[in-house]
Design a protein that fits this description.
By secondary structure, this protein is mainly alpha-helical. Helices cover 68% and strands 0% of the residues.
Length: 132
């Protein structure tokens, strides 16, 4: 079974265009087109971008973009390729991130702290001598 990169590379060679020409005509970066042909999707910005580039590349080559995207989806479903994660997300992985669970925990801790301060204040006001 062919990968999407092999499918598009074969179509490009059959049409006789160079990858540089296609990059200029489609306005897709040369590095991205090479990455698609080499099935190296990690350098692409996101999975949605990869699908858009594949569709545009296939449309330019006058081959079925539906077939190209089906091959791409097949490869990802079978796990032959790693998941495409935006570059910025790779940089942030392992660092603190906001999510609903973290937010809920912090709000609960803050409310508990306020309750504790209130109770300590009331305890001191009950045990101290009245002023006046």
């Amino acid at each position: 079974m062919k990968t999407v990169g092999e499918f598009l590379k074969e179509a490009r060679r059959g049409k006789g265009d160079s990858i540089d020409q296609i990059s200029k005509k489609t306005k897709i970066r040369l590095a991205f087109l090479k990455a698609i042909e080499e099935n190296n999707f990690e350098i692409l910005p996101s999975q949605a971008s990869a699908k858009g580039f594949i569709k545009n590349y296939a449309d330019y080559l006058e081959v079925s973009s539906v077939k190209a995207l089906a091959i791409f989806n097949r490869d990802f479903r079978k796990g032959k390729q790693i998941e495409i994660v935006p570059q910025r997300a790779k940089e942030l992985s392992g660092k603190f991130s906001w999510n609903p669970k973290t937010f809920g925990f912090l709000v609960s801790a803050f409310l508990f702290l306020l309750l504790l301060i209130f109770l300590v204040f009331k305890l001191f006001s009950l045990t101290s001598a009245p002023y006046g």
